[in-house]
Structure of LAME_0G20098g1_1:
Amino acid sequence: MSPLTVGIVGTGIFARESHLPAYQALPESFQVVAAFNRTKSKAEAFAEDAGIAKDKVYDSLDEILADESISMVDALLPVQFNAQTVEKCIAAKKPVILEKPIAATIAEARKLVQLANSTTLPIAIAENWLYLNAADAMKEHLADIGPVVSFTYNSTGAFVKHNKYLATTWRQKPEHIGGFLSDGGVHQLALLTEVLGEVDSVSAFTKQVREQSGTDDVVFSTMKMKESDLIGTFTYGSAFGSCEKSIYFKVYGLNGAVTLNLSDKKNPFITKTVGDSAEANGDVQTIPIEEHPSFGIQEEFLNFHEAVVKKEKRIIRGSPTVAFHHLACVAAFLESSANNGSNVVVEQP
Ligand SMILES: NC(=O)c1ccc[n+]([C@@H]2O[C@H](COP(=O)([O-])OP(=O)(O)OC[C@H]3O[C@@H](n4cnc5c(N)ncnc54)[C@H](OP(=O)(O)O)[C@@H]3O)[C@@H](O)[C@H]2O)c1
């Protein structure tokens, strides 16, 4: 079968450093054949790296959509453009995968979900953390610790002054709710909810620690999950002074505990203790987890490829409905914090 031909829209940092290498590593499934970027010189440089013909460096999304040789679009834009991009792709009958978070606001995210529901075309949100082996490994090990009772998820780190992402103007003046809380926070919420199911309600405080973040950049919250009366905490932010970077996700059960440690993304591992009490004195087992160097991106692309080839949008793991929930959690944090930490039910699409 011939590979899907991809038109890239937005040839910025992530397109260049992550999406292009992932496509190039999957030549039997994808061929990047066209590009459009607001600043054309960047699309031209991208085209050279990608081996795209000069006449396929376009001046607009419309030109990409009019090119019948392109079988799918990959959009890596500031996310306030996601909903309008989907609308145009549907009109042109082109499947599209768009970078996370789903949209800049809940209203736009809802519109995008409705657009996706109105068509049989595959529409995906590229939430690569949904495809991590860590999620499946956590689910497997949770089976050993009895009914799960509660959890704590902590993703925190020091502020990085010379962060290439912070240098992008659309992040400095974010139109997307919560700025970095939605930009990076949705990844953590994707992993959390992939393992434990959807969040029912939150009570949260958010605050802005760094002026450069443009808006609130840390959240400390408590959560109630939809399933089984599970309760837990979720903490996110990389705006602090010097501190160890940590991403850990600990789930407590009646018969033990499982902790995922993703602090070093190249060497993630799980620790597990089984036993019903302190007296059970369970040994701590350490289980390494293998993650692909693309950190879920190749898997997400292959999932989208299958959906396009089979014309079966229901197999997409990062569907707009799934990604809506991640952004809706961020919206709930912000609303709760604005109301002095009162409990807020997470909105449905
Ligand atoms: N999954 C992940 O781990 C991950 C990591 C990083 C980023 N991302 C996502 O990838 C996307 C791109 O992020 P990035 O870090 O690559 O940012 P970036 O380098 O700023 O890329 C954004 C691209 O959008 C274009 N753009 C900006 N404003 C525009 C406008 N008003 N109209 C049309 N085009 C515009 C830019 O064009 P110019 O060249 O003209 O500025 C640029 O090429 C975002 O959705 C982000 O959330 C995902």
Observations:
- Residues 320-338 form the longest helix (19 residues).
- Residues 268 and 299 are 18 Å apart (CA to CA).
- The pocket of NAP is lined by residues 10-15, 37-39, 42, 76-79, 99-100, 128, 165, 168, 170, 183 (CB under 6 Å).
- The chain has a mean pLDDT of 97.
